[in-house]
């Protein structure tokens, strides 16, 4: 009967083999791509916007809190569904100053 440790060793060995195979296949794919690009005199810019996907994405700015519950200290931005502590009350009374 095969033990857990033996299975883990086999898994690790297979993962190493898979990583090596991937490296080799990726290298071959890159060579094919470069060969085609040279053959047709293409540049990465010719491939269109998909080739320019390395553009950094700006993080969204945080929305400042606008209302606060004086009892619990919970805050709300004023966007989306109103919290329970604000139901039936005037929002203006809970504005953060």
Description:
- With 97 residues, this protein is mainly alpha-helical.
- 37% of the residues lie in helices and 4% in strands.
- The chain contains 1 helix and 2 strands.
- The protein has a two-stranded antiparallel sheet with strand order 1-2.
- The longest helix is centred in the N-terminal third of the chain and has 36 residues.
- It starts with a helix and ends in a 21-residue tail after the last strand.
- The model has no long low-confidence stretch (mean pLDDT 90).
Low-confidence stretches: none
* SSE-based structural type: mainly alpha
Shape: flat
Q: Helix share of residues?
A: 25-40%
- The whole-angstrom Rg is 29 Å
The pLDDT mean sits at 90
Supply the number of helical segments. 1
Care to count the β-strands?
A: 2
**SSE ordering:** HEE
Distance between the termini: 71 Å
- Strand order, largest beta sheet: 1-2
Largest sheet: 2 strands, antiparallel
Strand content: under 5%
List the SSEs and their pairings.
Elements: H1 4-39, E1 67-68, E2 75-76
Antiparallel strand pairs: 1-2
Annotation keywords:
4% strand, 37% helix, mainly alpha, two-stranded antiparallel ribbon, 97 residues
In short:
The chain contains one helix and two strands.
């Amino acid at each position: 009967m095969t033990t857990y440790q033996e299975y883990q060793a086999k898994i690790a060995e297979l993962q190493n083999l898979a990583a090596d195979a991937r490296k080799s296949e990726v290298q071959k794919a890159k060579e094919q791509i470069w060969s085609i690009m040279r053959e047709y005199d293409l540049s990465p810019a010719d491939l269109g916007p998909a080739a320019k996907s390395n553009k950094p994405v700006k993080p969204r700015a945080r929305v400042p809190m606008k209302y606060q519950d004086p009892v619990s200290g919970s805050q709300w931005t004023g966007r989306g569904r109103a919290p329970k502590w604000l139901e039936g009350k005037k929002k203006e009374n809970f504005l953060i100053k």
